[in-house]
From TrEMBL:
Keyword Signal set for record: yes
Assigned keywords, A-Z: Protease inhibitor, Signal, Thiol protease inhibitor
Protein name in the entry: Cystatin domain-containing protein
Family: Belongs to the cystatin family.
Domain (Cystatin) ranges: 27-109
MF terms (GO), sorted A to Z: cysteine-type endopeptidase inhibitor activity
Bilayer-spanning residue ranges: none
Signal peptide region: 1-19
Gene3D superfamilies: 3.10.450.10
Organism domain of life: Eukaryota
């Protein structure tokens, strides 16, 4: 009887680990919720880097996180599938004077309706102990 209980308990632990419940293991990938604070910060950093590097006149904005995983390896690696949209706001990284990006009456001050989103896959390494904690890479050439 005791052996059967031990086998049952071991099988339950294995099934729980395979289902993705329980504590995260070092190096293992775990699904993240679309409202996870760390994932939202990583997504915001990815969209900010997109705005810095694509030289578009219009700013890209984060609409949401479609799905993602998180892995703890010398920091936290977020592998995220994002929904982004082009807003009616000027991209401050392409302007000579970034303070002029949002004058009075600019649509950035209001809630505007997003008409169309684009998928974007980004990998973000978060290392909080460093001065610039986010290292962002994109899967494909997005520019």
């Amino acid at each position: 009887m005791r052996r059967a209980f031990t086998v049952f308990l071991l099988a339950l632990c294995v099934a729980t680990a395979m289902a993705g419940f329980g504590p995260a293991t070092l190096g293992g990938k775990r699904r993240v919720d679309s409202q996870d604070e760390g994932a939202l910060k990583a997504a915001a950093a990815a969209v900010d880097k997109l705005n810095q590097e694509n030289h578009s006149l219009w700013r890209h904005v984060l609409v949401g996180i479609d799905r993602g995983t998180k892995q703890v390896v010398n920091g936290v690696i977020y592998d995220l599938q994002l929904a982004v949209a082009i807003s009616p706001c000027r991209n401050p990284y392409t302007m000579a004077d970034p303070s002029a990006a949002e004058p009075k009456g600019d649509p950035c001050e209001k809630n505007y309706r997003v008409a169309e989103t684009q998928p974007m896959h980004a990998r973000v390494l978060l290392r909080p102990q460093e001065a610039d904690p986010y290292l962002v890479t994109f899967d494909q050439d997005m520019f």
